[in-house]
Write a structure and sequence with these properties.
It is a single chain. With 336 residues, the chain is α/β, with parallel strands linked by helices. It is built from eight helices and 16 strands.
């Protein structure tokens, strides 16, 4: 019998999640002969922790069902098929699927995507070649399209999506790319490693004043991962016809009371500007297009990516908590 270890949510957090809200549980895996037809058994090698998972810890329905208490959590993972009852997915295939937070997963063959490791290593399929990279691409080509000569602002710019978005904005023709991050180390990395023209350390003083210095004539595009004061400052700085992609609002994910909207929201009308939310599920059709571009950029090193890695399934909750506090540069992954 193979023992599987998985992370369960055992309490719904109020405010910031705590380690005791999670539990490491050992379970028994079925034998290969016990798999249902068209199922595969995957030994997960990497799993992702992402901000949206915090919303699934609430009891109410969102765009994804809430995590169930006393059951394994879910999220993107990649691994090797070690048993298969699918003619299309043989043993040894590397696949991406959505049953992370566990060492082994029994997955329907229809719910896995084969990863071509000749294009990029396994971990890249959870980052630049996964929904992380696709989010940046959809935000800057569909939701708030970058035009030649635009000035672009990205918040959480040293994070998983932000570190790709700044480089992508440049490739799409932006004349100036500005990133906001927390702390001098991250701000320095934005310019030195991720190709930003200017960095704002939102912990180092007035966000609005730093943005006015970095973009004295305003901005055309804002990729919002933070909400709150970042969104207010971006609306104030937005030029006529400006565009905002609302990707996330991590500043409010742990709020225990409803968070008021920005007081300057109506300024968008006077600026003939748009603020558009995005759900990555609506852009999965762009995956082949994005992977075709991004794989080449990874190969020629014109797209720089970084990982922050935690080791072992038992560290997954701590990796999630660290990521929510901004402890990662680039994509936060757990190596299993």
């Amino acid at each position: 019998m193979t023992v599987n270890r998985e992370i369960h949510l055992v309490a719904r957090p109020s405010g910031e999640p705590r380690p005791q809200d999670f539990q490491l549980v050992s379970t028994a895996l079925p034998e290969p002969a016990e798999l249902a037809e068209d199922q595969v058994l995957v030994r997960n090698t990497w799993m992702s922790v992402d901000p949206y998972m915090r919303e699934r810890m609430h009891e109410g329905e969102s765009y994804l069902p809430p995590f169930q208490l006393g059951a394994p959590m879910e999220g993107s993972a990649i691994g090797e098929v070690v048993a298969s009852r699918s003619a299309d997915i043989p043993v040894g295939t590397t696949v991406v699927h959505f049953l992370g937070w566990r060492e082994y997963a029994v997955v329907d063959a229809a719910a896995v995507t084969v990863a071509d490791l000749s294009l990029a290593p396994a971990e890249a399929w959870l980052g630049a070649l996964g929904t992380t990279g696709l989010t940046a691409y959809a935000a800057l080509t569909q939701v708030a399209p970058v035009r030649e000569g635009d000035v672009v602002l990205v918040s959480a710019a040293a994070g998983a999506v932000g570190s790709i978005a700044g480089q992508l904005a440049r490739k799409l023709g932006a004349s100036r790319v500005i990133g906001s991050a927390g702390g001098p180390r991250k701000a320095k990395k934005l310019v030195q490693d991720f190709g930003y023209d200017a960095a704002i350390d939102h912990r180092a003083g007035s966000l609005a004043e730093q943005l006015a210095e970095a973009a004295p004539d305003g901005i055309d595009v804002y990729v919002d991962h933070v909400g709150g004061d970042h969104l207010v400052a971006a609306i104030d700085a937005l030029r006529h016809g400006g565009r905002i992609a609302m990707v996330g609002a991590i500043s409010s994910y742990n709020a225990t009371e409803p968070v008021p909207g920005p007081g300057n929201l109506f300024a968008l009308a006077a600026k003939d500007a748009t603020l558009r939310g995005m759900l990555i599920n609506s852009y999965f059709h762009l995956f082949p297009e994005w992977i075709g571009k991004a794989a080449g950029w990874l190969a020629d090193d014109s797209l720089h990516t970084e990982l922050t890695v935690a080791e072992g399934i038992d560290r997954a909750p701590f990796a999630f908590l660290d990521m929510m506090r901004g402890g990662n540069v680039g994509k936060m992954l757990v190596k299993l």
